[in-house]
Design brief:
349 residues; Rossmann fold; 2 domains; globular; single chain; alpha/beta
């Protein structure tokens, strides 16, 4: 929320503690429950929902939204995910979208394509507000390290969550690396995977697959801090998002901040977040990944030019200010509409 809110005018309440969960865990989001909303109504002017719908049943979500309306609390929903990356079967998630998208007072989303999809499926219009700067220090402010002679490609399989085609990604990496055998510039593909994963057997198979090619390095890692992730990405020439399904990607935003080109499968609206630095690939056609790697060789060098880096950083900082202003205007409009609606509703009682 820091990236989208101007703290001079907007106070964002901290995530309520989740009973039985470790400190810092926000899910399941207590703020989207009827009890918390009623107990905290005097401290709230608006409710902005981003993630966590899958923690509730449609009936629970419907009850929370009804409570917000009863409390005259405007609800803003940002449509990040039209498909939930944590789930394979989307049926239950679509049921939740069928509750919140028609009921929310205002909708936002990140891309025009997602807005068009919402319009087609639910007949609602979203305010299209791009994802703001994610990288620390106002973007890529660091002096880039000297580029190595090798081309470095990265993937992160996370904890093998359902929307990541991990086996397809590793096979594509090995097959693409084959296409660079004998090149003067070596290609190294580094694949990270969390130590704690959802499918231990698959993790073992992936390690075996990766070991079949000397240029493909699969490394298990503890959950990385934001600083560690940025440092790792900044050393890459290309980052790959091997998704089965999805809508938008925070990885695409962070890579753009750092000047790292992205290649990914043609799912959702990720390619339209930053089309100038995104290449669409097919994991079943390693030549498409190889082509993206060749393009990245050139574009990554250009992105590291001081003038280019400085212009990108200034543009992202300017965009962040615009995003914050857009959210502030949206909150004010939603609150004003709620205030005008209140006397009319009370008059009908």
């Amino acid at each position: 929320m820091d990236a989208i809110t101007d703290r001079r005018f907007v106070e964002v309440l901290p995530d309520p503690p989740v009973p039985g969960a470790p400190d810092g865990q926000w899910w399941p989001p207590v703020a989207l429950t009827t009890g918390w909303l009623r107990a905290n109504a005097d401290h709230l002017d608006a409710l902005h929902v981003h993630f966590g719908l899958e923690s509730f049943s449609p009936a629970e979500l419907r009850a929370a939204l009804a409570t917000a309306r009863d409390l005259r609390l405007p609800v803003i929903y940002t449509v990040h995910d039209l498909e939930n990356p944590q789930l394979l079967d989307q049926t239950g998630y679509v049921d939740l979208l069928d509750v919140i998208i028609p009921a929310a007072d205002h909708l936002t989303t990140l891309t025009a394509g997602a807005d068009a999809e919402v319009g087609h499926r639910w007949g609602r219009e979203c305010a299209v507000i791009p994802h703001p700067l994610l990288a620390g220090d106002g973007g890529d402010a660091r002096t880039p390290a000297p580029r190595s002679e090798e081309v470095r490609v990265g993937m992160h399989l996370r904890d093998l969550r359902p929307n990541i085609d991990a086996a397809g990604a590793v096979r594509a990496a090995a097959a693409a690396a084959d296409l660079f055998e004998g090149d003067e510039t070596p290609v190294i593909i580094e694949i990270l995977m969390n130590e704690r994963v959802r499918d231990a057997e698959l993790a073992v198979r992936l390690k075996t697959l990766a070991a079949q090619h000397p240029s493909v390095h699969l490394r298990r890692t503890a959950r990385m801090t934001d600083v560690d992730v940025e440092a790792w990405l900044a050393e890459l020439d290309l980052f790959v998002v091997p998704y089965r399904h999805g809508t938008h990607s925070g990885w695409a935003e962070l890579c753009f901040d750092l000047g790292v080109p992205v290649a990914g499968t043609a799912v959702g609206h990720i390619a339209s977040q930053h089309p100038s630095s995104f290449s669409i690939i097919d994991l079943d056609d390693p030549a498409t990944l190889a082509a993206a790697i060749r393009r990245a060789r050139v574009s990554r060098q250009a992105a590291d030019e001081p003038a280019v880096r400085d212009a990108r950083r200034r543009a992202r900082l300017r965009e962040r200010d615009e995003v914050r202003a857009a959210h502030l205007a949206l909150y004010r409009r939603a609150i004003d509409e709620g205030a005008r609606r209140r006397p009319a509703e009370e008059g009908r009682r």
